[in-house]
Amino acid sequence: MSKKISRRDFLKIGGATATALAVGSMLSPKVAQAAFDAGTLNAAGDGFVHSMCEMCVWRCGLIAKVREGRVVKLEGNPEHPHSRGRLCVRGQSGLMNTYDPDRVLTPLIRVGQRGEGKFRKASWDEALDLVANKMLEIKNNYGPEAMVFSSTHNLSQPLFENLLYGFGSPNYGTQRSLCFNAMIVANQMTYGMEEPARIYNDKLEYIILTGRNLMEAISTSETGELSQAIERGVKVIYLDPRFTKTAAKASEWLPIKPGTDLAFHLALLNVIVGEKLYNEKFVKKYTVGFDELAKSVADYTPEWAAELTDIPAEQIRRIAHEFAAAAPNALAHNGWRTSNFVNSFQTQRAITILNALVGNWNVTLEGAAGEGSGALGVPPQPPFPRVSALRLDGVPWKYPIVPFKLGVFQELRDNIVSGDPYEPHGWFISRQNPIMSIPDRAKTIKAFEKMDLIVTVDIFLNDTAWFSDVVLPEASYLERYDPLNIVGDKAFLRQPVIEPQGEAKSALWIYKELGTRLGLGDFFQYEDEEDFLRQQLAPLGVSLDAVKAQGYAVLPESEEKDPFEWNTPSGKIELFSETLANTGFDGCPVWQAPPEPPQDQFYLLTGKVAQATQFGTQNNQLLHKYSDEPRLWMNEDVAEERGLADGDWVKVTSAVGVVNIRLNATPGIRPDCVYLTPGYGHLTKGLTTAYGLGASDSVLHVTYTDPASGSQALSQTFVAVERA
Amino acid sequence: MSEHGSTPRYGFLIDASLCIDCRTCMVSCSVENKVPMDNTRIWIEETGVTGTFPNLERYTVPYHCMHCKDPSCVSACTVAALTRNEEGVVVYDPDVCIGCRYCMYACPFEVPNYEYDERFPEVIKCDMCYDRLQEGQQPACAQTCPTGAIKFGNYEDMLALAHKMIKDNPGKYIDHVYGEHENGGTATLYISPVPFEELGFPPAASISPAVSNRLVTEGTPTVAGAAAVGLTGIYLTIKHAKEEAEEERQAEAAEKAEAAMEEK
């Protein structure tokens, strides 16, 4: 990132919009009444308001500096365990999302063809009446299951779920199968929990990161913890086919062959079991299935794995020795987006087992406190209606062990297109962009074309909103309340830092208004957002004003849970899982060979950059200002062999799509791989900064689903690359 | 204004081993200081990816004004738009700047940026977030750096920490605190696992060009001899401009004080 911000071909920041942050005239200088009432803003509209970030799902605590009713700077809240006084690059840029000139600030109703982007402004009453009437018509004609609902990880999701389960639909699309299903299902099968918490303390000596690119896929607290660990001299082994910014910081970068992480971990298990390097006491007392595991990994020697992984056998053996010697102060990290190959679920199982074998439990890993603490109140509501229709995403009739909560989003899309086992007719989407997120974008657009009704709730005219019939403008995270978020022993508050702009409304308001029109008012028993929060706070005996001033409420001490109890069928850590064996899967991890690219083709890799969250931040001008041009990475020697030079335009072709993009010829990637910066290639002209930049990875991605965890295998797409 | 070469009050210690090139510092700075969208006060210098696959390395580091103890830019500034204040912070006053850009040529660290496209262009340069310092806050970059690569504090503490880091971690850093002696010493200090030339840092001399600049701008008859006589005209012109600027500033301050009194 050079001194001169002068890459005019990439940079699209116009003169008119450049001053959006500095000039106040385009916005009403209203003071956020709530913050004013709570005393966090003075009469002039100056002050500091505590709230929560939403530039990714990590939800760091923030303190917003407000001047004359405008937010002028965001800082990390030192009291929040996720931010610890710091925000990442996305968090720092968050006010630009709120003040983006492309915000949708009134309800919109489509007037042109779908995808043409022609809308007219409408009142909330007209838009909500239209949506409710259409939804009821679909319910009457085809049953409630004909409405699909989808939303991505957010704090108002419980109310979204009230809407969908109250309506009576089983069809719920989340992003999870495109992200971490493999990791979550593996942890559930091994430890009986979604994801253990990782402990980075002073004693930690050794970390194995399997594709966990923490220096670019930033979680402020964990990225900081890893940095401090590296500063202390902790040894970090990093597996990735690409020389990422984490690779640059690791003690050893292992450019492993894609799809063979499972072989690497099976070999570690083989050495640790074969040479009796495991923690015998721990294994005996707290695990089941050791004998089955020993049998299962007996043949997976480092020499066997070396052939598959391109990592020398002696290096694998040494890492096994070092990891076992450092245990229990060692950590094999599960990773986050673990959906890479159809064998990723077994890779995840191998990682969880590796930690258990050497006794890392309760030292570097522990049971995580769930999000759903019983300490908070909830508004009363009736039971949901019984649902008898099958879920369109194949859970559980095709995917027996995938939890309902996770689902299989790509399968849901496929079955909308096929109309099997039945035809849905409407899709209600909140804070999600399935056109960009589900693999094989052309197919997702086909699914959209089949719908009688598409409704999107968002702050922007994102790609999915662009294809919608009705767009409902949500208030941004700096303009609204959300339900409380529990982290550690505190419940943190998201509150309006400024008044919502235009007609934008909170999700709590939108769902209640729509729910009431659908006859589901009993599922939304709160007067307004503040009343909802007061009901949540009631059992704590603390006032909303106090929480607004402080930013959080302290929770009563919860009962100490035995750290050595696991919610598995055996009550122990399951090295061998009977649940898996009984449902037709391997009870212990075994090698599954992934497909390889045909001659002259490449593995297509994606992975985060620090300046973006999925598909939602490319329009943020501050992030855009400091982002690199999205390009296709190719090994420089391979490029040279093909007569391609850095900066050349290339055509990238997969089995389902074609994109054009410029080449980044670099030594930092395996010769058999190419990497595409994800999240670009937007279809919508409603994002004026992002439109026309880069190429979409979802255009190229082929749909492959792991039958065990329901994970989409995102690195299993192969592409041909030629001069454009 | 502080004496040439005096010890600054504050200092940065920037550690190339911790920088992950996430650019949080850059966004934080841009927002705090309302930096124009096509300009920046802080950027990343880097080695690029070096070595051959799979033995690769890459180091990056944020780069901004060094806040020299004897700043060349201040000595080159004909109107005292750039000054080094009592706390050793090199600050800029756009109202005084005449846009001559001598500072850009003078700076051995190539720091000042310029708004070439503006009708009333300003020099763009770090001022240690001086307003934040007044409020007891850290500069925007240091406050938020997710990895702690940018540390900020008392200058002498930062210098001591730099040497301690090198001493306590044998083999990790090269034995060089960049900024300790460069250009006569700077308030921004760096430590790095690789030589600073590889990061693209200029091999600054240990004596600031400000010393020779002052031969022109302030005149030192004992050294300058005949050449100085020839430069006297320039010297007088510049001196006059500096004095004028100072007078203007004092008049403005007096006006403000008067206005404040009237309000009461």
In angstroms, what is the radius of gyration of chain A?
A: 25 Å
- Largest interface in this structure: A-B, 59 and 42 residues
Query: Which range does the strand content of chain B fall in?
Result: 5-15%
Mean pLDDT of chain B: 86
The stretches of 5 or more residues of chain B where confidence is low (pLDDT under 50) are 219-239
CATH architecture label name of the domain at 192-369 and 564-582 in chain A: 3-Layer(aba) Sandwich
- What is the CATH C-level name of the largest domain in chain B? Alpha Beta
Q: Kindly state the mean pLDDT of chain A as a whole number?
A: 94
Mind telling me the CATH class of the domain at 192-369 and 564-582 in chain A?
A: Alpha Beta
Instruction: List how many beta strands of chain B DSSP finds.
Output: 11
Helix/strand-derived category of chain A reads alpha/beta
Q: Which percent bin holds the helix content of chain B?
A: 25-40%
* DSSP strand count of chain A: 27
Fraction in helix of chain A: 25-40%
- Spatial arrangement of strands, main beta sheet of chain A: 5-4-17-16-15-6-7
Task: Please explain how this structure is put together.
Chain A is globular. In chain A, helix 10 packs antiparallel against helix 13 (302-309), helix 10 (261-274) runs parallel beside helix 15 and helix 13 packs across helix 14. Among the domains of chain A are: 192-369 and 564-582, Dimethylsulfoxide Reductase, domain 2 (3-Layer(aba) Sandwich), CATH 3.40.228.10; 602-723, Barwin-like endoglucanases (Beta Barrel). The model of chain A is unreliable at 14-18 and 22-29 (pLDDT under 50). In chain A, strand 18 and strand 19 form a beta hairpin. Chain A is built from 26 helices and 27 strands. Chain A starts with 14 loop residues before the first helix and ends with a strand. With 724 residues, chain A is of the alpha/beta class. Chain B is an alpha+beta fold and 264 residues long. Chain B has two domains: 10-207, Alpha-Beta Plaits (2-Layer Sandwich), CATH 3.30.70; 218-264. Chain B has helices at 24-32, 72-76, 102-106, 130-134, 140-144, 155-168, 209-217, 221-263; strands at residues 10-15, 43-46, 50-52, 55-57, 60-63, 82-84, 90-92, 113-114, 123-124, 150-154, 188-191. In chain B, the strands form five sheets. A three-stranded mixed β-sheet of chain B has the order 10-1-11. Chains A and B meet through strand 3, helix 8, helix 9 and helix 24 of A and helix 1 and helix 5 of B.
